[in-house]
Design goal:
single chain; alpha+beta; Pnp Oxidase, Chain A; four-stranded antiparallel β-sheet; two-stranded antiparallel sheet; 10 strands; globular; disordered N terminus
């Protein structure tokens, strides 16, 4: 991976003040990994509340791989990881201006890791990776196995085969 200009921004929204948020704040960086069907149980395990100092990746049985541009390691088994630098943590308020327990974490993507097995014609094959999609209440998730092509009106350029 070459060092270059920032790639983009990522919002992790909303999260309560947790060990993950504290670690993110201390490191000024994060390494979001694509949660896939193959990693579903491990992803769920990492969402548990652990005491300070407990490594949630180890608790979930996930192997770590070194990052290039940020300190936190990435999830080795994930087909896609983003290296992000912290921009800001916003404390969220309700409609009456009262503080909530939630935060909006904003980071800038400075590096990307993609498993070459998931590249097809130079683009990431999302359906092959089978990412999880959070669908709302309690434990509702979907597994993305198929994509549809629905371009925005007026967009005549086809970016993907």
């Amino acid at each position: 991976m070459e060092k270059s200009r920032p790639i983009g921004s990522r919002g992790i929204s909303p999260v309560k003040k947790s060990q993950s948020t504290a670690r993110l704040s201390a490191n000024s960086a994060a390494e979001p990994a694509l949660a896939t069907a193959a990693l579903a149980q491990q992803m769920n395990t990492t969402s548990d509340t652990f005491p300070p100092g407990v490594n949630e990746m180890e608790q979930a049985g996930l192997a770590a791989a070194p990052s290039v541009l940020v300190k936190p390691p990435r999830v080795a088994a994930s087909p896609a990881n983003l290296e992000c630098r912290l921009l800001q943590i916003l404390k969220l308020h309700d409609l009456n201006g009262a503080p909530t327990r939630a935060n909006l974490v904003l980071g800038q993507v400075v590096g990307v890791h993609i498993d070459k097995a998931f590249l097809k014609d130079g683009a990431f094959d999302t359906a092959a990776a089978q990412p999880l999609a959070r669908c709302g209440a309690l434990g509702d998730y979907a597994i993305v196995r198929e994509l549809i092509d629905m371009r925005r009106p007026g967009n005549l350029v086809r970016h993907r085969k």
